[in-house]
């Protein structure tokens, strides 16, 4: 299958067919989480705390329960008390006790929007009316939403039990700093001392939201025998099953989760909020219950990404070779621990060879919704700070910023952040491609600036199951348990078609419910095309093996005398040349006699290829208003192998644009009471079509050896460079270094004024 | 609260439903008529996922009362294809991979159709401004804009041939 250059030639991989679920999605037939109806279904609603921090003295639900039409009322008292248990969900994790308390408050509320009670009634209007009849007696406590304030010695304390983990000298003082993580190599101070030039700065960023368009929703039916059906959209139906079972002490096999279409997640749907509440409402009422969030619930109560503060110092010698670095940062986790400290630390300096460095990260709880993963969780704002300082170093030394990065870029064989040598990575190739790209040398106008930045995300492998089965007419069904969040059914079908030798149209891929296929970790960590794809390829290979052995039986030859070529069995035994198509094997040879042909494969690959991206951004800054217009973007990425290039480009373009929002407009705003002041799309402004130019993409394929086609996860790396690239462009346009996200117009004007 | 009986036309078919006076057109379409293709992303007029046409004008159905549909003609995503034949916008959205999650897609299709009915040859800026009320968090809009440009060219072609 190789041409002269050694590059593999594929029939299906690398083409751009229409996705199997496409027609459903352009005709309105696709069933998303709030679209599923169950006979007899009633409607739930959740009462949320108006306080950022308060003790719940008591809750009186009697009037609500008495309202005609109300079928069930649930509070924290209905939830079982759990033993502390850390769970790993594939893209971060946490403690099950915290998950449970995040679904429904017990003795305390930790943020504006924290759930305190839920009602199910025959109509949503009655359920909502009933919420107003619930009386909660709160003792309002001092709150802290600001990250720096939460670390102050006299800060209001969220959790009395928290002591900072990872300190050299453990302290017994209650604190909001849940842990400190240090990663170092050599002697950072000596490395900085060796430098000819050291650039440094203090950076910060506001919390931002994933901003998926589809609010969380689910429908749940609890049966008298304890069996539970859940229909929901999330990044992992198995994750919903595990976490719901653990929170409610239900045997895992008694819960069957059917994944509905998911309207975006970006990491935000790797955790759950509603399902355990809906199970209890359904159990109490004996009716199926639909529970859905409003947009303001989504902003107030679901996972933002952490706000950050970050001090960076990086030194280089006169040739522009990096000598040492120090990165010290903190992230706001929201109500419960976990702000992606570890991945942020791992990624922060991963693109560069630096002999001596010190990285220290802290995780800090604040009175904000508990953070959830958001595309490269933890890393983007820290990479923004590092890439800003790298830019400054290049400027100071008078070296082209691409050349500067090239001189220091990691390549195959260099130590990766975990210490093991990097496999084939394409950072240098991407930088070279950026350098010769016409965008890089295009002239700029007045008030315009150009910025570049790189970014790294390690990607994830993880557990996956896939099944491939042959039908009587020779068409094939591929079944996985990985929710399709942006076209993965297409790539699964394509990989199976490639292996078996069928046209894409003859292979259909579906996402099964949790009782119909073995376990798969959630869709996250850019793992699905890599790990689930690997399981699909293995299962497809087993099907091919079985077809070869059936053909061998028919021909009465040894299995080794049958080759599989272009979707046909070919007999190589001398004098017995013959061929059999898939259709013939499936039909003529009678699966009815020898039994059906199908295979399942399970994988847990430990060795994903990393995602590495570089982006060039041009901006124009209006000197009167401080408004930034993004004029041009070129996104380059080492994609390993693009199975379906359109969906790879889509991941790159989507990541860039989310990053532009993060850079320029997006950020949580809290009022003096600690309530979220911009809990809607009007005030939390994500980029719209008229804000943007086309987003050019350049895919560089440096295949990854541990995937049969060379796939590297592509979903997350593209959100790592944009903030740095935009900030570097704004700094180039204005002559002033921008150190805070978002770079809103007022911030830009005041930073310019301060510099003058 | 007594219900209001509403007689309306949806995608060319006569429809009747009973609703509370406060019910939005979006809720009536989704809950009473089970036309769940029209989505709710915000319920406050800020995302465009609920875009439908009302007597040919595009509106956010979350901001329209169901009772206002009385005697009028509504177009939703379910009515864009003619039978099993896709509209050029649908075909080009699929070919250009202009959807990732697809949650915003119904709103974009209805909005883009309304644009092309008014302006058969919009330039990129006109497309971007017309669609500025429709949020997409997945695609970065690039492929959506290209799909609309391509569909516009198809429709112009169809017209010249016809
Ligand atoms: S749901 Fe109507 S505009 Fe968002
Ligand atoms: S495709 Fe997901 S919001 Fe547009």
Which class of the largest domain in chain B in CATH terms? Answer: Alpha Beta
Under CATH, the topology of the largest domain in chain B is which? Ubiquitin-like (UB roll)
**Order of strands side by side in the largest beta sheet of chain B?**
2-1-5-3-4
The CATH homologous superfamily name of the largest domain in chain B equals Beta-grasp domain
Q: Overall mean pLDDT score of chain B?
A: 97
Instruction: Indicate the CATH class of the largest domain in chain A.
Output: Alpha Beta
| Cα end-to-end separation of chain A | 63 Å
CATH architecture of the largest domain in chain A: Alpha-Beta Complex
Largest β-sheet summary of chain A: 7 strands, mixed
How many helices of chain B in DSSP terms? 5
Unreliable stretches of chain B: none
**Helix amount of chain A:** 25-40%
Structural class of the secondary structure composition of chain A?
alpha+beta
CATH topology of the largest domain in chain A: Aldehyde Oxidoreductase, domain 3
What number of domains of chain A? 3
**Name of the CATH architecture of the largest domain in chain B:** Roll
Structural class of chain B: alpha+beta
Which distinct ligands sit in these coordinates? FE2/S2 (inorganic) cluster
Structurally, the number of domains of chain B stands at: 2
């Amino acid at each position: 299958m190789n041409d002269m250059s050694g590059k593999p030639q594929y029939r299906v991989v690398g083409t751009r067919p229409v996705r199997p679920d496409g027609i459903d999605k352009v005709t309105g037939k696709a069933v998303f989480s709030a679209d599923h109806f169950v006979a007899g279904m009633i409607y739930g609603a959740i009462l949320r705390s108006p306080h950022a921090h308060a003790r719940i003295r008591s809750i009186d639900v009697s009037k609500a329960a008495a309202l005609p039409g109300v079928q069930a009322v649930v509070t924290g008292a209905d939830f079982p008390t759990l033993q502390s248990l850390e769970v790993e969900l594939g893209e971060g994790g946490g403690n099950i006790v915290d998950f449970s308390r995040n679904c429904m408050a017990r003795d305390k509320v930790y943020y504006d929007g924290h759930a305190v009670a839920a009602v199910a009634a025959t109509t949503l209007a009655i359920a909502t009316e009933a919420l107003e009849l619930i009386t909660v007696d709160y003792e309002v406590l001092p709150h802290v939403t600001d990250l720096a304030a939460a670390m102050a010695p006299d800060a209001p304390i969220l959790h009395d039990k928290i002591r900072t983990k990872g300190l050299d000298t453990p302290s017994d003082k209650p604190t909001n700093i849940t842990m400190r993580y240090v990663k170092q190599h050599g002697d950072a101070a000596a490395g900085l001392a060796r430098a000819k030039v050291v650039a440094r700065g203090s950076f910060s960023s506001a919390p931002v939201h994933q901003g998926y368009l589809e609010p969380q929703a689910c429908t749940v039916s609890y049966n008298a025998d304890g069996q539970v059906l859940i229909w929901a959209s999330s990044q992992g139906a198995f994750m919903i099953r595990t976490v719901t079972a653990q929170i409610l002490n239900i045997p895992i096999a008694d819960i069957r989760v059917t994944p509905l279409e998911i309207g975006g997640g970006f990491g935000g749907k790797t955790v759950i909020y509603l399902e355990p509440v809906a199970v209890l409402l359904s159990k109490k009422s004996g009716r199926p219950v639909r529970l859905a969030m409003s947009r303001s619930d989504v902003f107030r109560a679901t996972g933002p990404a952490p706000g950050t503060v970050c001090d960076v110092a990086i030194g280089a010698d006169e040739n522009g070779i990096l000598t040492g670095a120090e990165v010290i940062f903190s992230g706001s986790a929201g109500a419960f621990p976990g702000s992606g400290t570890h991945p942020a630390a791992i990624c922060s300096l991963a693109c560069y060879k630096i002999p001596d460095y010190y990285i220290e990260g802290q995780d800090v709880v604040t009175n904000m919704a508990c953070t959830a993963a958001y595309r490269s969780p933890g890393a983007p704002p820290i990479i923004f700070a590092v890439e800003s300082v790298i830019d400054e170093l290049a400027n100071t030394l008078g070296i082209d910023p691409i050349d500067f990065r090239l001189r220091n870029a990691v390549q195959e064989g260099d130590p990766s952040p975990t210490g093991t040598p990097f496999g084939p990575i394409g950072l240098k190739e991407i930088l070279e491609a950026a350098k010769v790209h016409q965008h890089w040398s295009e002239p700029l106008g007045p008030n315009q600036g150009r910025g570049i930045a790189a970014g790294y995300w390690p990607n994830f492998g993880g557990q996956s199951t896939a099944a491939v089965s042959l039908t009587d007419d020779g068409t094939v069904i591929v079944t996985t348990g990985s929710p399709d969040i942006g076209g993965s059914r297409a790539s699964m079908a394509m990989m199976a078609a490639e292996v078996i030798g069928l046209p894409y149209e003859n292979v259909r891929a579906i996402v099964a419910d949790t009782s119909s296929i073995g376990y798969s970790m959630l869709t996250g960590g850019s793992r699905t095309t890599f790990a689930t794809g690997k399981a699909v390829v293995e299962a497809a290979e087993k099907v091919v093996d079985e077809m070869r052995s059936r053909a061998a039986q028919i021909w009465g030859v040894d299995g080794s005398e049958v080759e599989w070529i272009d979707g046909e069995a070919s007999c190589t035994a001398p004098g017995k040349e013959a061929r059999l198509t898939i259709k013939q094997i499936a039909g003529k040879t009678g699966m009815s006699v020898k039994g059906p042909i199908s295979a399942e494969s399970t994988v847990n690959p430990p060795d994903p290829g990393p995602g590495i991206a570089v982006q060039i951004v041009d901006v124009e800054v209006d000197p009167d208003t401080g408004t930034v217009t993004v004029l041009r973007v070129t996104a380059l990425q080492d994609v390993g192998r693009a199975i379906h290039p359109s969906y790879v480009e889509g991941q790159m373009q989507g990541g860039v644009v989310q990053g532009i929002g993060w850079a320029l407009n997006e950020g949580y705003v809290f009022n003096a009471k600690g309530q979220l002041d911009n809990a809607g799309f009007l005030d939390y402004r994500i980029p719209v079509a008229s804000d943007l130019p086309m987003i050019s993409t350049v895919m560089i394929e440096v295949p990854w050896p541990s995937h049969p086609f060379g796939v590297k996860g592509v979903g997350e790396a593209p959100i790592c460079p944009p903030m740095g690239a935009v900030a570097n462009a704004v700094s180039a346009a204005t002559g002033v270094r921008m150190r805070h996200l978002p770079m809103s117009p007022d911030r830009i004007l005041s930073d310019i004024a301060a510099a003058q | 609260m007594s219900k209001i009986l509403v007689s309306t036309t949806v995608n060319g078919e006569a429809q009747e439903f009973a609703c509370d006076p406060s019910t939005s057109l979006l809720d009536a379409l989704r809950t009473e008529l089970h036309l769940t293709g029209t989505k709710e992303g915000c319920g406050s007029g800020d995302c465009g996922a609920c875009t439908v046409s009302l007597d040919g004008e595009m509106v956010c159905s979350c901001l329209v009362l169901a009772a206002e549909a009385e005697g009028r003609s509504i177009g939703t995503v379910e009515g864009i294809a003619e039978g099993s034949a896709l509209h050029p916008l649908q075909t080009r959205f699929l070919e250009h991979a202009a959807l990732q999650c697809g949650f915003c897609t119904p709103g974009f299709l209805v909005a883009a159709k309304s644009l092309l009915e008014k302006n058969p040859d919009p330039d990129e800026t006109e497309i971007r401004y017309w669609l500025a009320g429709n949020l997409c968090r997945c695609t970065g809009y690039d492929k959506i804009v290209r799909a609309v440009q391509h569909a516009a060219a198809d429709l112009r072609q169809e017209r010249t041939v016809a």
